Automatic annotation (TrEMBL):
Its EC number is 3.1.3.2. The keyword Zinc applies. GO terms for molecular function: acid phosphatase activity; metal ion binding. Its cofactor is Fe cation; Mn(2+); Zn(2+); Cu(2+). This is Purple acid phosphatase. Residues 63-162 form the Fibronectin type-III domain. InterPro entries: Calcineurin-like_PHP, FN3_dom, Metallo-depent_PP-like, MPP_PAP, PAPs-like, PAPs_C, PAPs_N, Purple_acid_Pase-like_N. Gene3D superfamilies: 3.60.21.10, Purple acid phosphatase-like, N-terminal. Residues 1-32 form the signal peptide. It is an enzyme of class 3 (hydrolase). Coiled coil: none annotated. Pfam families: Metallophos, Metallophos_C, Pur_ac_phosph_N. It comes from Escallonia rubra.
Amino acid sequence: MIMWKDTGMGSMLFQLLLVSFVFLSFVDNGSAGVTSKFVRQEWPSDDIPLDNEAFAVPKGQNAPQQVHITQGDYDGNAIIVSWVTPDEPGPSQVRYGTSEKKYDFTAEGTVKNYTFYNYNSGYIHECLVDGLEYDTKYYYEVGVGDSARAFSFQTPPKIHPDAPYKFGIIGDLGQTYNSRSTIEHYMESGGQAVLFVGDLSYSDRYQYHDVGVRWDTWGRFIERSAAYQPWIWTAGNHEIEYMPYMGEVIPFKSYLQRYPTPYAASKSSNPLWYSIRRASAHIIVLSSYSPFVKYTPQWRWLAEEFKRVDREKTPWLIVLMHAPIYNSNEAHFMEGESMRTVFESWFIQHKVDVVYAGHVHAYERSYRVSNIHYNVSGGDRYPVPDKSAPVYITVGDGGNQEGLASRFQDPQPEYSAFREASYGHSTLEIKNRTHAFYHWNRNDDGKRVATDSFMLHNQYWGSSRRRRKLNKNHVHTVLASMPHRLRRPL
């Protein structure tokens, strides 16, 4: 029997053992193959009526609306501001500064519009605001005169391996009452930026003029969050809008007109795939709907982008896509297989920490598994445990009008750690280069309920060799910031 002396050394060793125990329990075992019996359907999956206050048009003649921001460069000290003026172009100018109602700087943007069948968009403004200071709150204004509107945003910390940051993850949102519940609950989470994994407005479920109208309502719907913090966009299948019967055959037409991405900053040739760095994270956005996979422009770009990843500066490597690689729901089963066969080995080789996807309207988290050894003549035919693999998480549960995907495969596959058919969102709170806290929050009867949560260890800095390079204070920092319930042995 080991007797601990009440000394500083004994206390430190105990804390190290405790952190190790919690770490192994939560990362290796998670929720151990759980299929939740909870199925939530608080409201019908109908879109909110057009005259609802959630879609209210701002007061004032030609007032800017649908204001949203995204990251504007590779490293996070620029934003792209977008908005729509409905009646006339007006100025494409952003006035901004570090004091409220005092705008010391201006940035000039561009304006455009487009048609979709017999719908005419408003005037879509896009303005790059660059040269910003890190970790600084800025106030900005768009529009003129009595119709001008003011907002604010916070820039991220400077790129650093131990820069803390909290991301929200939302997918397949739409514009129902359940969608509104997800947005409201996310806004209570303290998230600083949204990683959006595709399927935005679901306007493609409408026809003719109403397609464009439902893009406008969705833009006003998300403004309450997207005007104040960057949403990092991923395109889903509902953004394709290929509608030959209406004479509209240009895929992603509405999406690309309205939601710019900083793709050129990461040397991408297409706004549907790109990369950014933010705080201590390197985020790679992939398109699940690029024709074919191997030897395509996206494939060639990703091969080069992985070479640019520097885990000494941005230890957290996150991939976003729309169609999940691992999915045990009957909905969209194996639709991500072409992406898996080509990119899964790269994710393991480059030690990707987590891959987020949407598409399936339910929540699911995998264990660390891979299926890269099988070929037609032999090898592992099914996914096997692989500590070098990322965690795969499906968060396609934002609340859209298609409803929940509640038919999971039975029995639950061994690669599936936790799954539930409910509406919600996730958060990833990065603490330092080695640890992050992950939560999936079910939107349950008007409350935000943390249903699935665990501590995520970094794939690059998690090896024993690299951990020895760290200052011992990292362990104390992690322990002090852990939720109290995670400190208790399981």
